Amino acid sequence: MSRPPLPPFTAETAAQKARMAEDAWNSRDPERVSLAYTEDSTWRNRAEFVSGRSEIVGFLTRKWARELDYRLIKEVWTWNENRIAVRFAYEWRDDSGHWFRSYGNENWEFDAAGLMRRRVASINDLPIAEAERKYHWPLGRRPDDHPGLTELGL
């Protein structure tokens, strides 16, 4: 299976890859998201280590059961050959109605077919008031005219 754009990345293809990842994660569909990763993909997400697509699906299912009304924006930080580093911020609420903005960085490594074989994520959660939210689009894909992280001052 091939997942274009393929490495080596350019500024344009790295940005395309990041937007494709953002769109998939905003779908909140663990099966769909898992298809962007190799069968044996390894992750470090905060303090959790995940290996393989089935564990990715389980991880994301748990994540989105806990992180409600999830909306994410990713932005390329840098790229080189088969690696991309992104920064991101997402907003979500817990089942008690408390809102959070989670900030982080991810380092991605891809195989020759464009599938991500390694993902390393560092994330911090900031409690926010509902009035401080910046992401108000309907659940799903971020509209093309919605500001990105830089434009939002994040």
UniProtKB/TrEMBL annotation:
It comes from the Bacteria. SUPFAM superfamilies: NTF2-like (SSF54427). Pfam families: DUF1348. InterPro entries: DUF1348 (IPR009783), NTF2-like_dom_sf (IPR032710). PANTHER family: SLL0781 PROTEIN. This is Nuclear transport factor 2 family protein.
